[in-house]
Amino acid sequence: QVQLQESGPGLVQPSQTLSLTCTVSGDSITTNGYYWNWIRQAPGKGLEWIAYITYTGSTYYSPSLKSRTSISRDTSKNQFTLQVSAVTPEDTAVYYCARLPRLLNEPDCWGQGTQVTVSS
């Protein structure tokens, strides 16, 4: 059974860099055919895709967030990480990590989500 677990600070100050980690169990992030995603949902808004890293380590970003985001992985720990720089209150959201099979349009496995609030 695949499980994803997000971790990171619940509160970040404006202009700082947010760093979140997704720890995966029950599957390897190098397993052929899967993309590992970060997705967020701001209060009162829909889901917003941020970025993903593929099983080969290639990365793809939302154009609207690309200048401030970075996704990476640590295969020895079976983790992947999201960094968002220069955060503002508009980055306040529940952040999810999720596994997307290459041939599907929607993730088939999600973490429970972690609340991040940007505030001074």
Write a concise synopsis of the structure shown.
With 120 residues, the protein is mainly beta. Helices cover 0% and strands 52% of the residues.
What does this structure look like?
- This protein is mainly beta and 120 residues long.
- The chain is 0% helix and 52% strand.
- The chain is built from no helices and eleven strands.
- The chain is globular and about 40 Å long.
- The protein starts with a strand and ends with a strand.
- The relative contact order is 0.32.
Query: Treating each run of at least 4 consecutive H or I residues as one helix, how many helices?
Result: 0
Overall SS class: mainly beta
The residue fraction in helices comes out at under 10%
What average pLDDT do the residues reach?
97
Percent strand = over 45%
Largest sheet: 7 strands, mixed
User: First CA to last CA: what distance?
Assistant: 39 Å
Specify Rg, calculated over alpha carbons.
13 Å
Global geometry: globular
Strand tally is 11
| Low-confidence runs of at least 5 consecutive residues | none
H-E order: EEEEEEEEEEE
